[in-house]
Amino acid sequence: MSRCLAALPTDHTPCAGPAVVTVLDADNAGADGCEHHAARLLAVLDHGRVFALPHAPAGAAHRVFKAATPQDERLHRLTDAILPSPATPC
User: What is the rounded distance in angstroms from the CA atom of residue 60 to the CA atom of residue 53?
Assistant: First the structure.
């Protein structure tokens, strides 16, 4: 089963439903994701933002924002969070 674009390479948990939000980084690069993975991605992005997709249920972006607990390691760019480093096997 494929996972949403917001799923971090180190996060092996399954998606919690369809992609319903877009997470944007400080440079406006974005990834669509389920609420579960979007919250985890938002938590590691410095100055990240979340927006509901047009078909999202009411309050989806708010739930993601509230669930995103800031992490010790913060990343500025979405590509730093999503793409594995060259030394990391896929």
Answer: 9
Q: Where are the domains of the chain?
A: 21-82
The whole-angstrom separation of Cα 34 and Cα 27 is 21
Kindly state the tokens that stand for 80: 């730093």
Over the stretch 9-56, which tens digit does the pLDDT of each residue have?
888 999 999 999 999 998 999 999 999 999 999 998 988 999 999 999
β-bridge partners, 30: 24
Q: Are 50 and 21 in contact (CB under 8 A)?
A: yes
Which SS3 state, helix, strand or coil, does residue 58 take? Answer: coil
What is the CA angle 30-34-36, rounded to 5?
110
